[in-house]
Amino acid sequence: MKRNSSKLYTLQQALYTLPIALALAVTSRPLLAECSICTNEPPKQILEMLIKQTDSDYLTQSPQNLIMMSENAAYFSAEEGEELFHEKRGPKKASLKSCDFGKGPGVLKGAYAEMPRYFADTDRVMDLESRLVHCMKTIQGFTNSDKAIKKRHGSGSDMMKLQTYIASQSNGYEWNPPLDHTLEKAMRDAGEVLFYRRAGMLDFSCNTCHGETGKRVRASVLPNMNRPEEWTKAISWPAVRVGQHNNRSSLHRVRGCYWQMRQGRIAKGSDALIALISFWTDAARDQPAILPDLKR
Amino acid sequence: MKNSMSIKTGLAALIAVLTVSCTSGYKKVSGKRANYTTMSSEELAEHLIFKDRGFKLNQKVQEGGTMRDRMKQDEIQKICSALKKRQVDSSTAQKVSTIAKNNMLYPKGSIRLGDWKKGRALVQNAFGFRVGHKTDKHSKRKPGGMCVNCHLLDSKMTIPSGNLGPSLRGYGKTRGQSEGVMKYTYEVIYNPHSVFPCTNMPRLGANGFINQEQIRDVMAYLLDPKSPINQ
Prior knowledge:
Strand order of the largest sheet of chain A: 6-5-7
Number of domains of chain B: 2
Largest sheet of chain A: 3 strands, mixed
Oligomer: heterodimer
């Protein structure tokens, strides 16, 4: 609502329109301008809104977790990540302020919601993690053997702190990964093939567990890729996994799924991983990101 | 002196070339960059798995060989993957069930029931055959049939059951133990594509997840009137 932005509005006019605008906002969400949910609403409120819109066993499976979301330990990761982001680090003693996540150097607002995307400087489609590693190498001078880059998992890792900070800047933004570049399209489509690709001793694919709504493996309710309102939560990483007492990334999720499927270990930063993430992000298109999230 | 200089310069140039080609993110395949946009999405997916090292393919797997073998698709996997989210059509169904039936292996002699108690332990055991950041050691613990992950089983079970597959509660009670039921049950466990082409259910027998003795025990759990699933 840009009710006060125009100088043509007198105070009186503004006061007249305010209740109408508020009434519209409450009763008819679609009438609001684009990015209706790109507000400062915290992850918990976004999830509650999705729950109201959608009858989803996946979204409602843990009332305790919903309550805990306002005190998500991932907020600490994000804070630490913010400090790391601005700190002059690495052999080149530089901060990450000049890192371009697709919306210009240092622009983080909504950047992650539009990833993976094509980057001309590397001539690659990159996801958040691979782009971050690229910047840490090129701007800060870290190498693959440095702990800052090497350690990908665990709340205490630089990677998880930085990813959580950057991703949190897209909280409430609608997933909108670009598909204009031919490589973006090629990677998304290859990701789709990977998603449905059955292999290994159990003949499973991602679709075995994520193709229908209300399905469970043991007690875990599984998100349906075909239902964007619940899929957005599924792909909202980083998230604290309550059962694991750790903040986790997209890489960690994909690695875990392939492990349970008895297929191979996905390689960090690989194009196979980025292709899969391109497809899964496209499947959540137009739904608000919940960042950081808290999962069972 | 001149010679050693030019060797040094040449080496430096070579190192520079190697460094650039390794760090620029270019994907080289036998010297040439793979062009993702000229491949079909299926070709690109295979390329990303096998040529671009998207997965750790050299890890050893419990059944022998490496992960590369597991990641390769057999015919049934290929045909069923190509459906994506579509329901299987009748000609594909025919094709898949024929492949499955042609590769069906039956036990020597007649199909017999084993021990339902052992079977009950097997259906709850979801251990085995995982490889990657952690690897299941079969010397420490035997792999199981993992049925409870997807099927509702007996009511006394404390592990919560999944619902990806149908409920099996009362399986033997409603079906009895005729030769036909025994054969059908064996076939569904050994290779369910023979009966349900492109089903989500794994080929526990055909893929070597459980052996003949274990299949007999799982069948006993399902069909024995004394088994808690039929109480």
